Give the backbone structure.
Amino acid sequence: MILRRATPLLFLAPALALIAVFRIVPLVEGLYLSLTDWDGFDPPRWVGLHNYERLLSDDVFVGSIVHNLLFLAAIPVWVGLPFLVAALIHRGQPGARAFRIAAFLPPVLPGVAVGVLFTDVLGYHGALNSLLGATGLGALKHSWLAESSTALIAVIAVVIWATFGIGVVIFSGAMSAVSRDLEDAAQIEGSSWWQVQRYVVIPAVRSTLILWTLVVTILSMASLFPFVFVLTNGGPSNKTYVLDFYVYQQAFQNGRLGYAAAGGIVLLAIVFVPLLVIAGALALRRRLVA
Amino acid sequence: MTALAQPLRRPGALGGAVGWVFLLGVAVTAIYPIVILLFTALRPQHAAPTGLGPPDSLDWSNFRDAWDRAQLGRLFPHSLAITAAAVTLLLAVACPAGYALGCLRFPLQRALTLALVALMITPPAVLLAPTVHLLLSLGLMNTYTGLVLVLAGLHVPFAIFLCSAQFSTLPREVLEASRAEGASELRTFATVALPMIRPTLLALAALNVLACWNELLYSVVVLQGEEHRTLMAGIALLSGQYEIPAPVIAAAVTLSSIPVVIVFAFCQRSLVRGLTAGAER
């Protein structure tokens, strides 16, 4: 009888142990470390909130936060593009699968590969400038990754390139469940393709739209490191610094691990506080409406 | 059905010509840069960049050069071993946990689910410094074991989540029948439930192979020093060095991407299913 009760625990134990040691413990330790000065060799030295003060007065760190938020400004494209692609191919037309595979190839590539790839394409003698020159837009040529005014936009574009395919797949899956009869009925009544999307498809995949928006938000906070590392290393003039790159830089290249831990905690707060506020607001609204 | 007043236009007839042009544009934008990477990899090392087109002559020796200079022969096995170990570990640990979450009942079940979601949302960089501290304390810094455990820990929450979602869709009668026959829960899990979610397991394995092979942040931080480095770390550090010609780096990157492209080619349908299943939950 006791064994029966303990069964779930036995099934959960290995996973819980792994998570406890390698996720929970570091989380707690991170809070402690953020209040210390530590170089990785000598014992950590207590400094209280000093790291946080320094973070908030560090232009590069504040700049990182701004740059991360600028990624969020790209959400209309980041969400709209995969949605459009999926909407166009979701009826299973011939060639739809080929498009989906084509879109899904970039996300498979390592971030390092994508970085190297676009370092070439976006270089001054690279493919993009060649294309601009060939189409008579030569005046728009830039050294995209090396100029302060264009570097961040270039990085954002690369990240969208590398991730929109995932959205295409997710939206395709959701749209395949949309009732075809409903779409056909709207069509019979004379709606244009765009109207069908707006009044039938979008409402039906609303939760997927929200999900994907959340996914790209998380991506912008959590997965930029390989791209920034290879494309720009944070430059030019620190214009492409992002939070996870900043944490790495402080920890690894500057040997300030306590400071990096503090940066990590701020990153955690930036991700979770808005989420908790939104979740709380939703729960409150549900209770008021009910 | 009443007769239609006008012939039914196939609704996503790709939204008409505009839709077609748009899709084609997207497809080209998605694929052509990869083609350019291959062009760069085949370009003679001291030739000028050729912009959009293929190089004037193909230099296959870049691949040999990349292999030697990036020491790919040494780094490939490192990444292979780490990826294989991490994925095996995380699947071994996530399947039973997912089964418990999806098919068994225990207190604080919802709390656990919420905790898993919270873990999935946490950016890996948050734990960078304390993980170094932990690994140092355990003597696992600069060891394969250390990186394997860290990578497994990073990806286990999503794996448990996906498994539990899939397990919970299994018909209860099948599981009850097995229990009624006297099978222990472990038996039921291993011989009845687990085989039924094989597609999900395949998708999960493929997704995690990709994630671990492509990983950079912890690979660079945990395995310092050339003897142990992973493939991605090695190439990323190489790409920062100016003396190495662009074609050689492009060749190195191409070689290092071949395994994940192969996984993609074989598991593409499975990956798609895994992603959409996760999204539905």
Remarks:
- Residues 19 and 25 of chain B are 10 Å apart (CA to CA).
